Structures are given as structure tokens and as C-alpha cells.
Amino acid sequence: xxxxxxxxxxxxxxxxxxxxxxxxxxxxxxxxxxxxxxxxxxxxxxxxxxxxxxxxxxxxxxxxxxxxxxxxxxxxxxxxxxxxxxxxxxxxxxxxxxxxxxxxxxxxxxxxxxxxxxxxxxxxxxxxxxxxxxxxxxxxxxxxxxxxxxxxxxxxxxxxxxxxxxxxxxxxxxxxxxxxxxxxxxxxxxxxxxxxxxxxxxxxxxxxxxxxxxxxxxxxxxxxxxxxxxxxxxxxxxx
Length: 239
Fold this sequence. Notes:
By secondary structure, the protein is α/β, with parallel strands linked by helices. It is about 25% helix and about 25% strand. The radius of gyration is 17 Å and the shape is globular.
């Protein structure tokens, strides 16, 4: 079985189209989307429509939930653009996505941790910067109740592979469309990123899962120009 994993698109339609061309070329058995679909000052409405046509199994990210629960004024600059661009029905559709998906009790997909879409699974927030978490803490965040062989998370935008409970595999595919955080006054805003569209491919083997973390080049300059045109110049930066 081969699974393609995407996450944290954040309304970057050009990055998503680039990733989907490569995924379609590879023809995996399954594609899973780990959420945070449209929140960003790029093409939120167009990204929503594109994903709607694809009908990919999708879990709800914290930003998907916030679009349904909050007003535009309650959402940080840049992310609020998605709220302003979508209809109430579209926002509610994002908010109604499942918090996690279980595939044949062998794969568990979620956005942050299995029980919280705002917490990181593989990282700790250390003085405002993300650092890799200790294995015992990662295992505790998953717990013993799920028993999957493959756990899929997003949220941090940082691509990484780790070993989970019982020798399972944990994958964060990185962000399709958001190279780094662009929150105002966030220390993570200054972290170096790169203008690549990221996703992962997981292939089941006899013992565990073989994993490819993939970063594709695309026309980031056009994305950066879109952010500036929409009034969010900090989102045009990647370092």
C-alpha cells in the first residue's frame, strides 16, 4: 500500500497544483490531507474549490476550525484573508471536517496530536522556537489507545519522520504551501525556510513503512506577488 500525504496548504493553490501533478504521476493507493487548507493571503476560495473537486479524505486543522468558529477580526492577519474570501457555507464545511481519520485501524491521520489540533506532536515550543521533542514525550502524546502502524501529523510545517509507540512510524510531511510561520510578533517568523512545496509518500513494507519526504520547486515569485497584492507582505518572505 502506498499513501501520499499533504498538509498545511494555507490557500497556496500553485503549490497544491504542483504537488498534485507529482502525486498523480506516482498513482498512490490513497491520498490524505492533514488540514489547514485555505487560511492564507493567496487563493483561499480557489484552493477550497480545487480541494472540493478532488474529494481527498481530509482532517480538520486548527485554522479550518477557527474559520468556522471565529470572526475575521478574531483571526491573525494573513489567516483572516481566508475567512473574508469564503462563504459561510464553505467555512462551516471546513469546520465540519473530522478531527482525525482512521484507515483500516492501521493508519491514523490528524493535524496536531490525536486529541488536540493546536499542539505539536513531534516538536516542543522552546522560547518561541520549535525544537524536536523527546521520544517519550511524543509517545505520551499519542498514547496507547490507537495501535496504528502509521501516524500522520502536520501543524508545525516541519517535515520529519520519527518512531512511535510499538515501533510505529510517524510522519509530518511538511507544508505544501507555507514555507514558514508569518504570524505577527512570532519568533518563528524569523526562521529560515525555502520556497518548496512539500509532501510525503509512505509505502508499507514487511516490517514498517518506507518514507519519502519530497520538496518540489514551483513559481514562488508569483505566490509572493499575490501576498503583496493582497496586503500581506510578510507572507512573501521565506527566510
